[in-house]
Amino acid sequence: MSIEFDRKIHKTLEDANLQLAVYTATARLKDGRTEVVSPAELPDYQELRTQAHDLKKHVMENLDSYLEEFERNVEAHGGHVVYAKDATEVADFVVGLAKERGAHLIVKGKSMTSEELDLNERLEHEGLEAVETDLGEFIVQLAHERPYHIVGPSLHKTRYDVADLFTKYLGIEREEVPEKQTAIARGVLRKKFLAADMGISGANMLVADSGAVVLVENEGNIRLTTSAPKVHIAVAGIEKLIPRAQDLAVFLKLLARSSTGQRLSVYTSILSGPRRPGEIDGPEEFYVVLLDNGRTRLLADRAKRQSLYCLRCGACLNACPVYRKIGGHSFPWVYSGPIGAILTPQFLGLGHEPALPFASSLCGACKEVCPVKIEIPELLLSLRGEVRKAEARDRKNLLERLSFRLFAWIMTHPRLYEMAGRVAAATAPSDNGAWISKVPALMNFGPLRTWLSQRDLPPAPRKSFRELWRLR
Amino acid sequence: MSRDHILHRIRTALGRSPGQAAPELPAPRIRIPLVDMESRIASFRTRLEQLAGRVHLAATPEEARAFVADAIAGKCAVASNAPYLVECGIAALPEVRSGVTDRAELRELCATMNFGITSADYILADTGTLVMISSPREARMISLLPPAHIAVVPRERILTGLDELFSLHPCPSGETSSMVLITGPSRTADIEQILVRGVHGPGEVTVVIVG
């Protein structure tokens, strides 16, 4: 485990306020979900999950064909499609277009893909003002932080933190009431929306047969971002495709329910192309940037390809006992929780944080709530295997490997096993049959000490099973 | 060029060749339940009221006009060009500006008025949702910029839910640049999980069902 990962985890565990904030926020989302996917509420929930899984699988297996269909349909409605290999190509495109159009102010709708790219830094570097308009994103942008949770970017911030940020950056009098803070943000951002030259959104889904971008949200900032400025750019991973608009009947029933426990989000926008002749408002120009950024590499791995089915609903974060303790900022990249633990090593390489696939109890809660049935625990196990293989190649963890080899040797030799058992029973400290929480000094060193510091051992039995069997 | 590069990488990853069609998919899963009109209206009402939206049932267009006139009395409103609002006499109310077709003018109005009044192409019973299709009759901003939104809809436009909507509009982008589903007032809980309505969109949504 990297020192950084360890440090961040401990910092989170020691912060009682943060523990409470993460626990209550995830509990609220988790309980909300449970209610609206219950059999009484949605009897065909399991069937919808299977459908969504199968549709995503089909799209991934034929992705080139669906991308080309999507592209044709966007262009048929007067929009443009741009392919980008990585963050640099996205930024180059946005900056180039902004310069051509003489744009200065860009409003942004919340997008995990955009976070993946650190797009704002690049835009600011080029002298453009990029403003996040989702309230939570606006707060974390002021704090120069990363979103804490896929659907609750600022859930680690208290009203007092927000008051500090608003006073410092917005030049206003201190305000600690959330309703009033929200009204302040509304006022500040309303001016930005009406003055913005460009709007950048992500996409929850791309619909191949319609050339449409689907966006779900609760605040209305995405509707403003995509409708008020003259130019709308949607930046989306190539894996966001679904085949047909009619399939939205499946995906929309699952997405908001899994994410926030709503039957539908407040606003679902299905957008395609610039405003049509006669339409009074809407953008004059419409672009979709299709991003690779490591996705094609992931696609080539047949077993782990299913990581690309993810809808970014965040349900696995709320269900995860590990996320709920260590929080979002302990994770080394933009994607946190169980899905982050499988996406990060696949996007950035195993070496980025080798301990990440191990930061799970493999309890399976994530898999149970995943609306597209991604087998997260299986993928974590497979990544663990890869980490260990890489370590073996690099001759790391020699001691651990030797111990396991010794263990395997003993386990495959019955006589040795019995002898080892006797030695262990004879030397183990006995405390009248109570669990052993302290171990002899002899064993209390190095990796054993770390291991034992978190575990109690059962008392050694007087007679082993084998001995009892023989005496029978 | 990145387009060809990315498509090539995808085809290599999948073992596919250029121009190779995707295998046929089974028909989309569309299930439309049989629900009578009264139950639809009751369900719509329950769902929207749970989200702090308001529902008013008007027996006639005149009653709808009277309700709206009362709601906006002493305030100012901008109305869309929906023929149904003209039919109900709402577009002609003294507080109401309507018939705007210029983008900049409309935006200015929407940013200053107290109410935005629209009709809706459909409403969805099982979620309490308004379906807004952008057109010369319905602009995007009227249901978005003013702090309160009133939608006036004849009762025959109530559908059971998403499945029925997508069976009637299998490909919305063929006809519009924007189909928006609105389910309750704009909301956020980004500061300490405290629910606040009206963050960027309208904090109040009222649906008048006529007939």
What can you see in these coordinates?
The complex is a heterodimer of chains A (472) and B (211). Chain A contains 22 helices and ten strands. Chain A is of the alpha/beta class and 472 residues long. Chain A folds into three domains: 1-36 and 314-396, no CATH class; 59-296, Rossmann fold (3-Layer(aba) Sandwich); 403-471, no CATH class. Chain A is elongated, with a radius of gyration of 26 Å. With 211 residues, chain B is of the alpha/beta class. Chain B has one domain: NagB/RpiA/CoA transferase-like (Rossmann fold, 3-Layer(aba) Sandwich), CATH 3.40.50. Chain B contains six helices and twelve strands. Chain B has helices spanning 2-14, 37-50, 61-72, 83-87, 103-112, 162-168, and strands spanning 54-58, 77-79, 96-97, 115-118, 122-124, 129-133, 148-154, 158-159, 178-182, 187-188, 196-197, 204-210. The longest helix of chain B has 14 residues, at 37-50. Classes of the chains: A alpha/beta (472), B alpha/beta (211). Chains A and B meet through helix 2, helix 3, helix 4, helix 8 and helix 10 of A and helix 1, helix 5, helix 6, strand 9 and strand 10 of B.
Short description:
The complex is a heterodimer of chains A (about 475) and B (about 210). Chain A is an alpha/beta fold.
Highlighted features:
heterodimer; A: 472 residues; alpha/beta; Rossmann fold; 3 domains; six-stranded parallel sheet; four-stranded mixed sheet; 10 strands; 52% helix; 10% strand; B: 211 residues; 6 helices; globular
Helix content of chain A: 40-55%
Shape of chain B: globular
What overall form of chain A do the CA principal axes indicate?
A: elongated
The CATH architecture classification of the largest domain in chain A is 3-Layer(aba) Sandwich
Cα radius of gyration of chain B in angstroms: 21 Å
| Spatial arrangement of strands, main beta sheet of chain B | 1-12-7-4-2-3
Number of H- or I-type helical stretches of chain A: 22
Q: Which oligomeric state applies?
A: heterodimer
* Number of contiguous helices of chain B: 6
Count of spatially separate domains of chain A: 3
The percent range for strand residues of chain A is 5-15%
The major pleated sheet of chain B works out as: 6 strands, parallel
* Overall helicity of chain B: 25-40%
CATH uppermost class of chain B: Alpha Beta
Query: How many β-strand stretches of chain A?
Result: 10
Beta content of chain B comes to 15-25%
What is the mean pLDDT of chain B? 97
Tell me the name of the CATH homologous superfamily of the largest domain in chain A. Answer: NagB/RpiA/CoA transferase-like
What's the main sheet of chain A like? 6 strands, parallel
Which CATH architecture of chain B is right? 3-Layer(aba) Sandwich
At the third CATH level, what is the topology name of chain B?
Rossmann fold
